[in-house]
Records
---
Amino acid sequence: MNAQTPPRPVAVITGASSGIGAVYADRFAARGHDLVLVARRGDRLAELGNRLWARYGVAVRPLVADLSTEPGIAAVEALLESDAGVTVLVNNAGLSRLGRFIDLSPADHASLLMVNAVAPSRLARAALPGFVARDSGTIINIASANAVSPYPGTTVYSATKSFVLSLSLGLQNEVEGTGVRVQAVVPASTATEVWDGMGIDLKDLPPE
């Protein structure tokens, strides 16, 4: 009797339809991970999933979810809590709003906090019990250089990214000595669609 091929590990990536999330999807697919790609735009997810399947032969499940909403977060939580094959969570989904603290509306404040702080915290909480029980798993949280060096007009955004960085450092301490890993990524200005919400044209940024 032939031994069954073990199932491939699964990486769950939020904000996967473009930018940093799409790059993570490609990298994990290249390493042999099946994928669950989370974003608001189902057409983008389908296009990316088809491309990665054709290139790497991995299984790709799209999960359309808006992480600025309670149902969107709950849908991803349910997946993380129920699928023991998940070995990686990439908390990449992010929202940007450029403007002075007093000029942003309460709705802007709420959406920034929900997507950038509440969602990664709750998804990490959903994934960790299984990771700890299996003594294996990785959480990658995408923060920002603004977490440690906010500039005018990014006060709320920067505060949410400071939360992500502090959350990551705290979780690193809590899982020390186990097979679970927590990583914070702190990119500087990166050419992604996050700038669309800030009203800044990428051509106006220094090339470096």
---
Amino acid sequence: MQKEGDEGVKFGEFMVQLKKGVPHVLLLAGEERYYIDRALEAVLAQLFPDGGQQDSLTKLTGDVDSDQLVGLLETVPFLIPKNVVIVEDTTLFRAAKKSTEKEEAEEAEIADSTKHGKGAKAKSSADKKLERLQKELLAMPDFSYAIFIMGEKPDKRKKLTKTVEKAGLVLEAEPVRAWNINDWLQGKLQSLNKDLDRDAYEYFLNAVSMMQQISLSYLDSEFDKIALFSKARRITKKELIEVFAGLPEVSVFALMDAISAKDAKKALVLLTRQLADGTYFTVLLVLLARHVRQLWQVRLLMADGVRGKALAKPLGLHPFIAEKLGRSAARFSDAQLRQSFLDIADADYMMKTGGGGNELLEHIVIELCA
């Protein structure tokens, strides 16, 4: 149980606290669905160690009437040990939308009428329903559990959110980015009783930094496959390459490394290989644009005195990768990167209008490595 006023806990801390026992009230909230799904699985596994929980689950979605929810929580289960109510995509903890001028005028009119005794009954009725739900959550029956799920951050200013923090446990499922992937990685490796050698770790960080969007579900399943077929405790770079080689945005990072090092010969060989392997022109162009943009952003940050590992957070990259990118950016000038951006835009237009082909990519690579 969290102390009153505490914020929600991250996934690792949530799982630790869950081992002490499942609270009767839970709020699983945030953008990272992977963590929410894993947390829900762990909760149900602990509530129903022998399985068979489906008969005890009541699932609701979206807007839920508070009194209906209270009634469900107070219902004594028949021939089953527990009464578990799951409210998916709940709006109970959502921040109120900013009012328009018209809505504000209407609210002012309601407030004025309330002062004169009009509309007070309707207003107090809604408040009383919410108060009944809050009291229920603070004094839950021993046989009932309420699990609220939402795909966004809850509004911590709401009384109901504070009630859940006081009565139970709140999971903050924040999306994982390249710069904070370590917590997930270490937890996953520990669960598999595996670790990465140095080259494999560096490769993994590079691979993740190239992903437009990190899918923990994908990474989770791929590491499970590696663990299934790898007998050694230590996962090698070769094994990771086999996993990620099929993703164009990952397999192409060797090309970006060659460009960063201004190694024109190696970069052109890798570009030719990518095209021969079937990587689309547009995919390569998008990744080139992203790399140039990152190098330019790094130069701007470094001009403001941001250097080394401090580059990680503003760029959304792992500190190791950000530091490496900082060293690479020093090899380029602002004018060169600006011109490359214009070349990329021209290549995009010419490709779409049939005015050029792979030679446009070669020109960009050569100019970047100049």
---
Amino acid sequence: MAENTFTPMFGLGDPNEAYAQYFIGSSYLNPLTSVAECGVGMSNVTFEPGCRNNWHVHHADKGGGQILICTDGRGWYQEWGKDPQELTPGAVVVIPAGVKHWHGAARDSWFSHIAFEAPGENCANEWLEPVADEQYPA
């Protein structure tokens, strides 16, 4: 893990151990709200430099998907079959249900975003293969 002098706007949180198997590198999770509390779960997710999650899909029978609000550092987002897009503070990414994608930090920067799953019916995440080094932006 890289030395952490990074202080995200919404707090670093704890090591993201529950989902570590779906990430290359270390990430941190700071829950901001819960579904039980207000109907929408939102968390600040922080990625060390070079950390990214696996390709994944947010499924839903109706509605659903994911929204990312970038708050700190610099990162990447990519949909399957499309070029990666750079993420910087203030960027908002709306990911419809059923879209295969990944997101994470740039190789040389810590990165944080607020992530939440859009409400929907029968929502479920499907974790897929890791992002290969060849796919990860230089």
